[in-house]
Records
---
Amino acid sequence: MVAVTMLTVVLLTTTAFGKGGKSSPPKIPKPTLIEDIDAAAHTIKIVYGEKRVLSTYTITTFTSVNINDKPGKVEDLKKGMKVSISGKDGGSASRIDAWEVAGSAADAKKK
């Protein structure tokens, strides 16, 4: 009985406090940003992640655009804006939500 109790205490201690090593903080993903916007060609290119993966979407007349949580136009989208896109990479975007990032190229053009 004493052996079972000791084993339980060891297991609970190991589970509660880890193996004694330091845990690393969770990685925070880099934001998804507009890399290029071409209103004439109806395309938007975005980059995301540590490796800066590039994705391209087609903008159609049915694509909903919101900027800073308000309805916007494709012409108002600028390089460097943080973005969330609904749609399939290489296909058409059904919705684009964009936000201006302080210190971005889009923010600098406003001044």
---
Amino acid sequence: MRRSIISLGLAAIVLLIWPATGFAAGGPLPNIGTAGNYAVLGAATVTNTGPSWITGQVGLSPGTSITGFTQESGPGTSGHQDIANGASGQAMIDLNTAYLSAAGATTTANLTGDLGGRSPLVAGTYKYSSSAGLTGTLVLDGGGSTTNLWIFQIGSTLTTASSSRVTLINGAQPCDVFWQVGSSATLGTSTTFVGNILANTSITMTTGATLNGRALAGAVTSSGAVTLDTNRIIQPSGCGYAVPAYVAPPAGNILPATLGVPWELRGSIPWLLVIGVGAGLGATAMGISSRRRRRRSA
């Protein structure tokens, strides 16, 4: 009887801990709707130079000029392309809705100065009244949850210095990071960036920059453009979106096939999950042992 009580107690611990590690509330998620089906989405143009590699779809509306890569061969490769059709038109409408939603989210903290070198930022809505810059590394800490949310409200421009990084730890997910940019975003050479960029006008990724997220430009203005140069972009899964279809790399692209690792391996060890799994195994073992003893005594 005593062992049964202990076993039930351990099982209860598993039920209590598991939701805390996987389903913690992260605040209202900006609904990007069908815009989430795209790794790159522009209003006027999408232009590429060099062997860029996009795992995910590319969309454009109302413009008709996607240049510099195809779905099958170089110089760059991407997933399916929607150009000035119903799908891309609806995606632009949904992008506008998401942009306004992110811009209107209740601010957690007002920031000034560079994003790099700060203490890890927990989930929240962070606001820059004008421009924002990133030099070095910005760490986003999920606190053991895979559903926490970050929104960065940037009044004008977002600019990263060369080799800057956004790093996720403790369960933070690329699909839960949003950059609402009032005008243009520029990712510097060899920047490693994460999240959904919702830019009012343009997004420029310079040579060697990578994005585990989405580059969505033209949220309000129809002149929005995305400009790429030898980049790697992976459209993130999660948040209701499936894993994007595989896209073969173009010749000459030496950027990584994957960007990031599973959350269980990022940063600190998720001890709550480890304890929960251990408790579950212990409860199972004790239950089996108790049944064996009862059979022997019968």
---
Amino acid sequence: MPFLNNLFGNIQDLISGWLSGFLPSWAVDLAMMAITTVALLAFLVVVVMYLTYLERKVMARIGDRPGPNRVGPLGLAQPLADVLKLVVKEVIWPAKADFPVYILAPVVVVAPAILVYAVLPFGPRMVAADINVALLFVVAVSSLATLALLMAGWGSGNKYSLLGGMRAAAQMVSYEIPLAFSFLGVVLISGSLSLVEITRAQAGYPFVLAQPLGFLIALICAIAEVNRSPFDIMDAESELADGYRIEYSGVGFAMFFLAEYIEMFSVAALLTVLFLGGWQGPLLPPYVWFLIKVYLIVGLMLWLRGTFPRVRVDQLMNLSWKFLLPLSMVNVVVVALVDKLELPGGFLPSLVASGLLMAAAGGCARYMRRKPAGAVARPGWQVREA
């Protein structure tokens, strides 16, 4: 069992020990970096392929349909057929595209999605680079995706893609701010920006118990950041004809598709590290616990897609700027006060404070939806709620 608990660390020791027998130390380091990169990329490709399968199965069950069941046993070979279709599909180049920007956009959107995994710990000794500002690195790298979507919208030379790119940038910028504030509560409690140290700080209890409000805000913002329903307004087919990626086909479209699903897995992994204790858990190997928690969050995202309708763009922006941002700022102040006062009871004071904040936020939301007193409906006009 100890060998399985540190399986990948032991494999790393075996490979590096074998390489050190005939290579200098600097060459061993380079070789281990290359092996880690290749293994991580292979893992992400397999994850994305079967996330699509999982999503189609879950959506089919929600819609009372069988889902993929023809290609391979139980439809398990369907992702391979999808990849083959995208690879061999004809690539069509728009005549009015800005070609350097148009070509670079898919590369720029995939690079930040992969770079995040450089600091994500899957278990003890299962992190490519344990830096002391890992959370800041994740936030900074993730923001580069906004630039890629703008490049895709502008470079395509299409008014619908430009509108989709602008809408995507507005959405991502709007939800990055409350997302960062929700992370601050975790940083205040753990006293570190290292994802490894944040995971170790949850040995007693996961931070979701002390920060349920922060977790809820982070979950909503993360779903909006990765363009998942009900916040998939940046490529709404009914309004934008697939938005910023309308002019991409074949491999170009596949790269946007790859980035979206990598980011979905990334935010689930990040929420697992920050709020659910990361690899912490009894009996099972640490990386198994990590994947169980990640797929619980992924399953929640898939369930939300099959349950809620898409919101309007004005509702999307109002939710961020008028509700989530003020609430996340108040949450940071309350967490800082509770942490500074050092109240006894472990996570209970923070839990009570989060409960009171959620109750107050719900009361404010109900008050804002209330119809104005004395409002009279006029023929041909609909009374708007306050």
---
Amino acid sequence: MAATRLISVVGKKDAGKTTLVVALASEFARRGKRVATIKHGTHPAQVDTPGTDTYRHYMEGMAAQVLMEFPGGRVMFERVDEEGDPIALVKRYLSAEIVMIEGFTKAPLPKIEVHRSAAHEQPLYDAARPEARLWQAIVTDDERLRLSIPVFRFSDTSWLPTLANLAWECAHQLAG
């Protein structure tokens, strides 16, 4: 298998990170790429519905791992002592041509930031910081924002395919 490409979508709360991850993942899938996503959450995910078998396996049985198989898919729940880093998670769990990673702002991966001026005055990107070299582009609603990296406007009509091309080219590559 060829190298797996990793690109991180970052931004402050309510900026639209999930919307962009979903749009890019859909665009890559439309292009025939095998896509995977990783979401960094700030609160525990719901392990099925209380009282269901999966919930009972994990919560009552205290299983270290629960793999739920169902028609058309599967879900894995796993207990961990510390957060993993996205590169290690991809290596352990995922098989894809490109992995869209939501969050993990501090990970040393190429980043596309989503910035909504209605939610936050300034983006995370700061050209003066050493990690600024990881930022590849920003998607924003701020018509006044001018930066030394590509800035895509939500109001533009063709930014998604162009951004997908940029993401593909600048993504971190794991050896296959």
